[in-house]
Specification:
Helix 7 links the parallel strand 7 (189-196) and strand 8. This protein has 2 domains: 21-290, TIM Barrel, CATH 3.20.20; 338-412, Arc Repressor Mutant, subunit A, CATH 1.10.10. The model has no long low-confidence stretch (mean pLDDT 92). It has 16 helices and 16 strands. By secondary structure, the chain is α/β, with parallel strands linked by helices. Helix 2 (62-82) packs parallel to helix 3 (105-119) and helix 2 (62-82) crosses helix 11 (317-325). The chain has a 9-stranded mixed beta sheet with strand order 9-10-8-7-6-5-4-1-11, with helices on both faces. A 3-stranded antiparallel beta sheet has the order 12-13-14. A two-stranded parallel sheet has the order 2-3. Helix content is 39%, strand content 20%. It is globular and about 55 Å long. Probably acts as a heme chaperone, transferring heme to an unknown acceptor. Binds one molecule of heme per monomer, possibly covalently. Binds 1 [4Fe-4S] cluster. The cluster is coordinated with 3 cysteines and an exchangeable S-adenosyl-L-methionine. It comes from Cellulomonas shaoxiangyii. Keywords: 4Fe-4S, Chaperone, Cytoplasm, Heme, Iron, Iron-sulfur, Metal-binding, S-adenosyl-L-methionine.
Amino acid sequence: MSPALPDGDVPPADGALPPSVVPRSAGRAFGVYLHVPFCAVRCGYCDFNTYTATELGGGASLAAYTGTALREIALADRVLRDAGLPPRAVSTVFVGGGTPTLLPVDDLVRLLDGVRGTWGLAPDAEVTTEANPDSVTPDGLHRLAAAGFTRVSFGMQSAVPHVLATLDRTHDPERVPDVVRWAREAGLRVSLDLIYGTPGESLADWRRSVEAALATGVDHVSAYALVVEAGTRMAVQVRRGELTLPDEDDQAAKYELADDLLTAAGLRWYEVSNWARTPADASRHNLGYWRGDDWWGVGPGAHSHVGGVRWWNVKHPRAYADRLEAGRSPAAGREVVDAATAELERVMLGVRIADGLPIGELAPTSRAAVAELVADGLVDPRAALGLDGTRRVVLTRRGRLLADAVVRTLAA
């Protein structure tokens, strides 16, 4: 069961945006997120808005989905124009899910062509698709690259069979080096996603997974702590005592091991859960989220943010398709972000990236708290004291493990 949508104001049926978005969008990059809500199998830990590919029909089916999403792209173009926003070429496109590569390659290309034909792509646009290791072929990856995709993010999660089994992941871990090689041969940048803290995963298991990812020669790794959300099958297993979650010390040890191994291999953290070999290997689309850029989220349950207005679509693919077929916006709710919320989010997201937050842009009480954070070993004293010439709040590794505490201190 995916989480409930947040509360918010009722959006207009046509999706119209208020005039305030024009000045608040000035200088912001524009990205597009395309949500493909289909998976071959639903993993027990997953609370994303996804459905098995065969359980839906009509305009919500896998076969009809691309045409439905293209309707929202056309609606988005009209809404942005009617709001008076100047045309902006798309700087990043991210196709996520779900398993986007369950769609035929031709449909993924149609989606990208829809974005390109509507807004244009910036000359250096980053175009990413997520994929499972068992959902791609060499030919398909070459065709995606030829169509303009530049990056693929594979859901590796683990290299250990019993860990994958607990996560309900069905791919063969021995296939991962092959798909990485195929993608790189096609000219795509490659990222591998890992999960740590699965019930029954030892520190040695986790080391094996990180080392297996690095052995592929990949230039980007994401490592996320498993969070068991209410309503998932794994949450039920934990509640029944069938699975035991690791404690915080175990999670911290695994994060530190990953950071040690990735750093030794030449990858550097640029966001709390993400490491890249060079700045060019970082996910520019995700950096856009963390830096507060604008983006339009296409698809059921997708979230958008334009000029300080945030909204989210209805969750069920059939309701989503029905609204678009009727010429209505699929938005279920929205909010205009006020100044206090915007500042809190700027701090909350800004401290997560290695660039950090300029101290001079913090409120006076927050600036005064930086010394306390340095003393507690949570903020790098070299950055905080300006020895690198910048005077920024940059987290130490201990600070990354306690990022929420840093945010609470700075936002107090």
